[in-house]
Protein: General transcription factor 3C polypeptide 3
Amino acid sequence: MDYDPMEGTSELFAALTRDVPLEQWEQYKEQIKLGNYIIDESEDDSYLSDRSVSPGPDEEVITNIEIVEEDEEGEEKMHESDEENDQIFWGYDAADKYAQGKISFYELNDIMKDSRSNSHPRKRRRVEEEQSAPYAELEKENEPIENTAQKAKKKIRRKKNLLPKGLEGLMGQANNYYAKGETESAIKVCMELIKTAPQAYEPFHLLGIIYDEMGEPRKAFQWYLVAAFLNPSDTDEWIRLAELCLEQNEIQQAISCYTKAIRNEPTNINFWWERCNLYEQIGERKRALYGYEMILKHLSDPQNGEKCVDMAREIAKIHHENTDDANAVRVLETSFNKFPSLITSEDVNFLLELQLGQKMYKAAVKTFVQHCGVRLKLPLGDITSVEDLNDFDNENFKALVSCIVPEVLPIDLTVKFLLCLIHLRAFKAAQPLIDSLKQENPEEMGDLFLDVAEALMEVHQYETAKPLLFALISTPTYDLPAVWMKYADCWHGLLNIPEAIQAYLKVIEMAPAYQDARLALSRIYLQMGKIEEATNILRQDYEDGEEGVVVGIDALYQRCKLLEAEGYWDQYLAAATLLQYSHCYHLETEEEFSAVITNQTCKRRVEALRDLKNQNKKPTPQFIGQTIPVTEMWNIFKKVCILLMKRKRYEELQNLSLASLSSATFMKNPTYAKDLEFQALLSCYYNGSHQYTYLLVRDLVLKYLHSNKAWNLFCLIVTCSQENRHNRFCIRLMMKHQDHLALGYLNGHNAMISGTYKHALGEYMCILKEHPNDPFAVFCVGITFIHMACQKFATKRHFLTIQGFEFLVRYAKMKGENQETFYNIGRALHQCGIKDAAIHYYKKALNCPPLITGPEQDIFDLRREIAYNLCVIYQASGAMDLVYLYSRKYIVV
Structure:
């Protein structure tokens, strides 16, 4: 069962919502007089009248902070009664809601903060802008703690939360009742005091004591908490409340109590420790780290030096694990400056690694001078202290003549100092250290050799770096492709192209998958004008038929650009297609194609393909290198599709298009995803994969249900593929969208083709009711009647025939006299066996021009079909001359 912090207290606070009757005030005056506090009648009346006035909604709430202003004392007195009145209403309202459980502890905390910040406009404090804290999100929370010293300088003092003078006797009476053991009377008096003066903490504190002795610690805790808010300067009370919170396992609330205590005593290390431990328990590691750093600031006593340094080490390690090296450096530097005598060589090494990682070379030199005994020499004198380096800039470092490094300094620290000098361009001072390093054994000090060589190459000192790299490649341990690559780059930097080419070829020989070497060598060949060599050096082993090899994306992309520029389209298609498979799966089996088609989302396609690839266990190429920009990859994809379409390589086009549907890179872009789905549909259609085409076009019409173009494409594909599954699909979809025009026609056509003319007539009639002026609907109804009349066992054949031609005549009136209408009426007459009338309409249709004109009018010209039907009629009657006439005139291609 959840714990209710104010269980049992709502009855007590119910009395607070009523006004105090005049009879009770007379009784209180009598009690006050008994307590030797004599009050005049006028003072009592004025006090009562002041307290009985409720503040308006627009009046401001006054806090418990009093500002002493010598030149405005009279003005303060003038507003005093109004401020106290506002404060009583505000304090009672907050306490009442908190006691009844309407607001939480944290909301009460916010209310008290707001009440202290919203003081009278004429006495509002001006808070100076503070320096930013190490963590931006903790700055606002800890601002009152860090600025305690600044606030103390202002003329601000906290006003004691004591009872008004007129009610001190009543508070004494409550204490007297409590001392005599009359707890009920004491509680009643305290509740009336809270009603009258809710800004005073004494009655709340006494209620806490009473309930504590009554064996109700939870209720007592709530009263103690309100009292602490009204008297926030009582540090001991906040600590006691924090301990009570921990007993009830309210860690977050205990943290808030410790925060209040820290604001009162920001230099108390114990409070910081306790709050940091609580932050650790709830997983707020960042806030705990901030607290530990605040502890470091306050640990300045030499007796705490060891503790401070140990803490700094741990905090720095945590920052380093969180990849926050800048804060790690700051923490170490703070502790090192306080207690330099407690620093070990491991600490210095760790600090130097962090500083070099952050490229803080000047700070690293200061560390060497301060902790390692390094001395720097200038033409005008020596530098022996850190203060001498404060005004140093890059030009000053370049002017260094030499340096003195103690012989006892380890070689790895000496090399770190050498790296600082190199990056600061102090080459004259660094040269003796470089010469000393060359005397070492590269087999044992190879890492140090390589670090110095890389630093020299970064500042373009290739000539100095070359001997170090040559020494490394001459050893068995460091005869590696990466070292040879540095050696080749060094020769390239020296503009010695033949030596650089030989070194790069050595790298490719040792590691064929080393793409950087191929790219660098390709650029050299391009500069020399050797286009073919530049292209061939970028060729991947996978293009030669090897499986399970490493493919470099950068080199492959560069190869595609070269092949495109030179117009080697066949090689370009192979390389560009392989490049596309760097972000999607290569489909090889029927199951993989089906997995892409049947799954609707890219995530499901990837999961299905991953499972199939794991089952097949066929080696696949491993792509390495930087990712190509999406827009550039999309442009390459479009170029490949266009080239495959022009070359009629439809199978490859289908494979690539379907594979791209599994690309998260493309599919997360809505525009690319839309184009990919349509591209996959076209590729399957041109390749003759009717099953895949139907599945894709079905998904297309579901997405674009009201697009006529999508339904026209659906009809085209269904006609070409001869799929029968579309009947059930259209019927199920029609049940969901009963007013859909295209689905109505399709269901009617399907019923017509299957011979169920009554069902077709029902579908067409529903369309005709909704669209009575649609000539195509009228035509479909007429044709249906004609088919029904032509059935072998049709009843009322003549009636059906008349009905059919009635609708066809209406269709002709709506459509007008043209080739289409004459041809359709002639076909109906031909089907019914009325051949002389059919010949008449066929001839009228032949004399009409095509209904649609333009460059594609031959597609819509019906004269060939009309002439063929005439030939069939004349052939049946034996008029072969007319058959030859019409066939030669209209049908010969």
User: Anything to note?
Assistant: The first strand starts at residue 65 and ends at 67. Residues 372 and 408 are 9 Å apart (CA to CA). The longest helix spans residues 80-99.
